[in-house]
Amino acid sequence: MSGNLPVQSVTADYAQRVADDLAANRSEQERVRSELARLQDELVRLEDSEQVLTKMQEVLGGTPEQAAKQRKNRKGAAVPAARGSNSKTAAGKSAAAAGRKASKKTVSPKKVGEPTWLELTTAYLGGQSEPRSAAEVAASLTEAHPERTVQVTVVRNSLEQGVAQGLLERSKQGRSVFYNPVSASSAPSGS
Question: Where would one find coiled-coil regions in this protein (predicted)?
Fold first, then answer.
């Protein structure tokens, strides 16, 4: 029987190594999934930003080449006296206001009578027993409201707005952020 003892020991050692390698592999998969989710969120945010910037560019007069042509064409035109020395400031302010209006329409189109993203996110979380991440909330809202374009960044901003208004609580677990409704015990007393 002493001949079997070393074989069993070697088998047990290999079994332990395989178990350790499997655990390490699963841990690495989870890390990569988390990084992938973060990169997907970042890509969505960048795509949203590109849409806003494109709309602003259209509002401000198209591409830089088109803007240069317009400046050349306008050099001969007289500036109205009412604008005076503040013409650049006024034009900049009105262009910025137009850009903000365009970006609001692009980022969160809302029809009259539809609930806001804040209302949707707080209502969804109110029906949950556990905290949820922005990606989980966005996925659930996509299923519940297929007629609306759900973007994770918009949902995340709405969740943060809920936190700022005291409607939601934020908690971190590692690098992940989770949201849940403010419980009655932690709600501020005496409004």
Answer: 22-56
What is the structure's pLDDT at 82?
47
For the chain, the structural domain boundaries read 111-191
- Asked if 124 and 140 touch (Cβ cutoff 8 Å), the reply is yes
- The sign of the dihedral angle between the CA atoms of 67, 71, 74, 79 is positive
Spacing of C-alpha 62 from chain mean position: 27
CATH architecture of the domain formed by 111-191: Orthogonal Bundle (1.10)
DSSP 168: E
Tokens of 166: 């005291």
Q: How far apart are CA 157 and CA 24, in angstroms?
A: 35
Cα 59 to Cα 132: distance, rounded to the nearest angstrom: 38
Question: What is the per-residue pLDDT across 15-51, written as a single tens digit (0 to 9) for each?
Answer: 999 999 999 999 999 999 999 999 999 999 999 888 8
Structure confidence by residue, pLDDT tens digits, 135-155: 999 999 999 988 988 899 999
